[in-house]
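$ ./design --mode recover --in tokens.txt
reading tokens...
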């Protein structure tokens, strides 16, 4: 299409070239914009969207029971005993029921104003219509006003009007059964284990609901039936997550504060935290029962309260070293769950991964702080143990930093560094970055583009060894791999220590083409198999170089892919004259300024952090196989889809 457009004479580029996508068509054309991709995560997110609506009914006090069933044909059924989606004719579209409007129109919903829901996970009026658009079959039944109604849809289009099925004097609520469309999701199938976990976590998040789980598919590990109801909410959840782990506090620091009572506004915060030395810390946060995987303001408020509490306690206990504790120390070994309910939350993106409501930080901080102070004062045994543990962490961190500084100052000369490494000058690891660059020519532009103080470069020649299946002596003999290890200051396998790393971020920067994707995949597999903690602790990133530069008169724009290019070609850049399109065949073709502006400078670049989906430990080996399989296209597609293994950062 973009090439067609370029070769089309200007006179045929008229109004007829401008497409307006109607109804739910845009969702089917670009599902990624609405559910973050067409991968496994997106597929399961479909169920979350529907379940969240039932949860919203429960949290609003209208439903007490939800049923989730995985059916043999790969469909999912979600039933609640809430008010039922309204079925009367919609005032704006009198020939359609409200139900049809909700399911077939983007931005139709009852959660924009606060009339029908106080705090809800839903807010955009998009979720159920998107699921409808991406399902080849969706059946919605509503029991309301003692009648049972039904309407069926396929790919977002009603198969007929809403029909009355008969009397339902003792029932109320909504039942949605949908089957994800293979045209969108290919051969991917919903997994009972993942849905089981999702369903269970919802019950932990709202103690006022009972959730029943059923599966007609036996995967050999997931229960076929279960009932979830957790009166102690998050404390139960945390105890379950940490069962068998030695913790510093006998019972977690857990609680719940109603914002209504404390500040006179709707909402609440619930939390549970404990500390352990036996595993890395984690924080899992939720807003209106929707998981916020990238955290946000509620997490910031929580850690602020924790930090102030511990420091104040340390001061009272005359422990001067408590002043050294930072948020980083709180995070190592601190295992926390927090769940906030607020009205009209704002998120970054439809998948709601990061909460951005600013006031949430203050509300959570104020709500948790007093409770934490009291808890520390009342349970002095746990408080003392936690304080000692955190002080130890702080001391360890400072010692490591000091060692690192002296190491960088004195030992860089002694360290054997690869000849082709262009090192940075910073004395200290914090904030430094190593770009592993494809090809020497790219290394040339990158030299001019980098910040000499913080950004180092290691150009790689061609492809590194495929480490899957390679014998370990082969690994040690491979010069590219040796260079990487020496530049990073680390060893492979069991001898790898994150603390030895000479840089904070390791950024893989390859061309935006299939070869580049292959090299990136080889490198990721290498790090995954030989230096796994480097990924787990968030040090590995992918750079995102643009594919095109568009110039129109004085206006210039870099775009990532064909779709974006097409969009801007049709829209224009706002400059004068024809739009000139330059496709970068490789990083080496970009001049230093372009590379700096688009890919390397922290203020204007986009980086993708490589991470492993904790929910899917079983799939990681599949993933490595997939990355390293026979077809490079697959890897390329995988890296492009990246959402399932990696997440976006500093856009
Ligand atoms: N199970 C249900 N019970 C009652 N009403 C429902 C149910 N599911 C959906 N609705 C109604 O349909 C509306 C649209 O739902 P939809 O999932 O499309 O968007 P949303 O939940 O408002 O927002 P978001 O796009 O953020 O999910 C909701 O606002 C609610 O009024």
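writing sequence...
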């Amino acid at each position: 299409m973009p090439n067609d457009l370029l070769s089309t004479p200007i006179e045929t580029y008229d109004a007829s070239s401008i497409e307006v996508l109607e109804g739910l068509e845009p969702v089917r054309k670009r599902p990624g914009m609405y559910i973050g991709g067409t991968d496994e995560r997106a597929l399961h997110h479909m169920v979350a969207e529907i379940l969240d609506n039932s949860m919203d009914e429960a949290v609003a006090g209208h439903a007490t029971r939800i049923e989730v069933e995985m059916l043999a044909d790969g469909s999912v059924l979600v039933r609640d005993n809430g008010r039922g989606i309204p079925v009367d004719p919609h005032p704006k579209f009198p020939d359609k029921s409200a139900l049809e409007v909700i399911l077939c129109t983007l931005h139709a919903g009852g959660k924009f104003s606060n009339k029908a829901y106080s705090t809800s996970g839903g807010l955009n009026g998009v979720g159920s219509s998107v699921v409808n658009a991406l399902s080849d079959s969706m059946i919605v039944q509503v029991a309301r006003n003692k009648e049972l109604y039904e309407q069926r849809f396929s790919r977002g289009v009603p198969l007929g009007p809403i029909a009355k099925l008969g009397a339902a004097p003792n029932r109320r609520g909504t039942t949605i059964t949908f089957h994800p469309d293979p045209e969108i999701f290919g051969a991917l199938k919903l997994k009972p284990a993942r849905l089981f976990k999702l369903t269970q976590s919802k019950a932990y998040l709202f103690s006022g609901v009972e959730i029943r789980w059923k599966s007609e598919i036996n995967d050999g590990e997931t229960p076929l039936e279960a009932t979830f109801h957790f009166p102690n909410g998050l404390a139960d959840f945390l105890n379950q997550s940490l069962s068998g782990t030695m913790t510093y506090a006998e019972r977690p620091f857990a609680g719940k504060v109603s914002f209504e009572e404390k500040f006179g506004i709707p909402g609440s915060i619930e939390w549970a935290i404990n500390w352990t030395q036996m595993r890395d810390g984690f924080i899992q946060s939720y807003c209106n029962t929707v998981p916020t995987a990238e955290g946000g303001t509620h997490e910031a408020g929580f850690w602020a309260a924790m930090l102030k509490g511990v420091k104040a306690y340390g001061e009272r206990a005359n422990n001067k070293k408590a002043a050294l504790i930072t948020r980083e120390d709180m995070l190592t070994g601190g295992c926390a769950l927090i769940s906030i309910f607020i009205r009209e939350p704002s998120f970054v993106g439809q998948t709601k991964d990061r909460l951005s409501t600013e006031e949430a930080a203050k509300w959570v901080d104020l709500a948790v702080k007093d409770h934490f102070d009291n808890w520390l004062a009342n349970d002095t045994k746990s408080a003392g143990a936690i304080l000692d543990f955190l002080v130890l962490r702080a001391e360890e961190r400072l010692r490591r930093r000091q060692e690192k500084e002296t190491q960088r100052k004195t030992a860089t000369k002694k360290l054997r560094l690869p000849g082709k490494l262009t090192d940075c000058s910073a004395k200290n690891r914090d904030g430094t970055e190593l770009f592993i660059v494809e090809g020497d020519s790219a290394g040339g532009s990158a030299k001019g583009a980098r910040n000499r103080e913080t950004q180092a470069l290691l150009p790689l020649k061609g492809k590194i060894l495929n480490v899957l299946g390679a014998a370990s002596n082969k690994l040690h003999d491979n010069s590219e791999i040796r260079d990487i290890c020496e530049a990073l200051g680390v060893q492979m396998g069991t001898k790898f220590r994150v603390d030895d790393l000479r840089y904070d971020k390791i950024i893989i920067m390859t061309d935006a083409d299939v070869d580049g994707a292959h090299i990136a995949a080889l490198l990721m597999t290498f790090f995954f198999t030989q230096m796994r903690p480097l990924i787990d602790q968030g040090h590995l990133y992918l750079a995102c170089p643009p594919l095109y530069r568009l110039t129109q008169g004085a206006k210039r724009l870099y775009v990532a892919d064909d779709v974006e290019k097409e969009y801007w070609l049709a829209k224009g850049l706002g400059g004068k004259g024809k739009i000139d399109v330059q496709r970068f065949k490789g990083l080496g073709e970009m001049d230093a300024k372009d590379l700096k502006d688009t890919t390397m400078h922290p203020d204007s670049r986009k980086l993708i952090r490589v991470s492993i989906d904790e929910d899917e430990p079983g799939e990681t080996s599949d993933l490595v196989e997939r990355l390293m399989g026979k077809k490079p296209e697959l890897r390329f597609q995988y890296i492009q889809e990246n959402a399932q293994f990696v997440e976006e950062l500093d856009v």
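exit 0
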